[in-house]
Task: inverse folding
């Protein structure tokens, strides 16, 4: 968990970490931006969308 | 569901900006970790989720040099390095020298060493002298400091963010922000456009989230007819241009906002409702009201 005040760089640090991990080729990175997600049902939809799009582009296909 | 869908390969899920969905995120994280050992979770939030096994890393503001240090020390501190690097990108040929040391340091200190605020300030250095930029931040923060100081602990972080993002708005953006401050509660795009007036048209998005207003200013010039200038007013924690490039690198496929005409911010999906809780919104609203009062007072004092 990266905590900090708005503008402190939490998101950028997380994206950088995820990009580095994804670049290693061993692990897939899946980004879910919750900025505009406001309700529990939208939260579920957003996660389902993210996973669905990750599947459709085959990020987790066996090598 | 997620763990099942993603099984097979190690996957890191980044949950970005969880603060308004702490319970949902906590439940999700626990369910995912219980279902699969191949899942890693990284979350960002103003507050921890409070789930077992959570490792909390507090992202600190950038390091600032002391004012009485020499230029070589000042130039090497993290905040000043970020400022000078972004300012030289915004204004080719920009070079900070020993003479600028105190001004650059003052600008970085004014925004508490917060990287996004430093980047926005550096972008303003393209069109303003360092002296004017420091002075304008100083003026604006003098007005806002009391709002930050009087906020209770829960809202201080939000108030600080609001203070620096407001201070870094251009005059046109600031005028717009003051105008939307007339709304006693949440407002929508149509409402925002109704009070925007002048030749500005608000195209998008996240208005109630207080995240970013993408403002199109239509200006008529004598020789080129109508032209549109796009600008983004940051009223919250989101930075669009860098986020867009960072997102591009990860190629997420979640729905994104698509402003009319295909211009402007594409960093998040359109939201009809606020990402802030009711109490947060009240704090935002209180700041907006204060700005309105100050703006009216300033108008009265103008000759």
Result:
């Amino acid at each position: 968990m990266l905590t900090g005040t708005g503008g402190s760089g939490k998101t950028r640090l997380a994206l950088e970490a995820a990009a580095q991990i994804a670049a290693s080729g061993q692990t897939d990175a899946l980004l879910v931006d919750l900025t505009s997600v406001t309700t529990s049902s939208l939260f579920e939809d957003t996660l389902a969308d993210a996973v669905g799009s990750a599947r459709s582009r085959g990020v987790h296909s066996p090598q | 569901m997620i763990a099942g869908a993603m099984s097979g390969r190690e996957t890191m899920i980044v949950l970005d900006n969880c603060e308004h969905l702490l319970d949902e995120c906590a439940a999700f994280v626990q369910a995912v970790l219980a279902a699969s050992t191949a899942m890693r979770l990284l979350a960002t939030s103003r507050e921890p989720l409070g789930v077992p096994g959570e490792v909390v890393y507090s992202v600190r503001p950038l390091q600032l040099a002391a004012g009485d240090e020499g230029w070589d020390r000042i130039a090497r501190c993290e905040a000043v390095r970020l400022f000078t690097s972004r300012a030289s990108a915004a204004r080719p040929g920009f070079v900070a020298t020993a003479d600028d040391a105190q001004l650059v340091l003052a600008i970085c200190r004014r925004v508490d060493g917060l990287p996004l605020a430093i980047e926005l300030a550096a972008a303003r250095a393209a069109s303003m002298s360092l002296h004017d930029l420091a002075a304008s931040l100083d003026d604006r923060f003098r007005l806002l400091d009391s709002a930050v100081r009087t906020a209770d602990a829960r809202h201080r972080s939000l108030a600080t963010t609001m203070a620096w993002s407001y201070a870094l708005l251009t005059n046109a953006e600031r005028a717009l922000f003051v105008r939307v401050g007339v709304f006693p509660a949440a407002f929508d795009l149509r409402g925002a456009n109704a009070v925007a007036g002048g030749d500005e048209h608000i195209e998008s998005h996240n208005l109630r989230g207080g995240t970013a207003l993408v403002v199109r200013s239509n200006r008529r010039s004598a020789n080129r007819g109508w032209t549109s200038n796009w600008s983004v007013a940051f009223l919250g924690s989101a930075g669009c241009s860098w986020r867009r490039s960072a997102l591009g690198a990860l190629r997420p496929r979640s729905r994104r906002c698509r402003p009319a005409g295909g211009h402007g911010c594409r960093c998040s999906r359109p939201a009809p409702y606020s990402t802030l809780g009711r109490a947060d919104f009240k704090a935002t609203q209180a700041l907006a009201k204060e700005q309105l009062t100050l703006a009216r007072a300033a108008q009265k004092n103008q000759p």
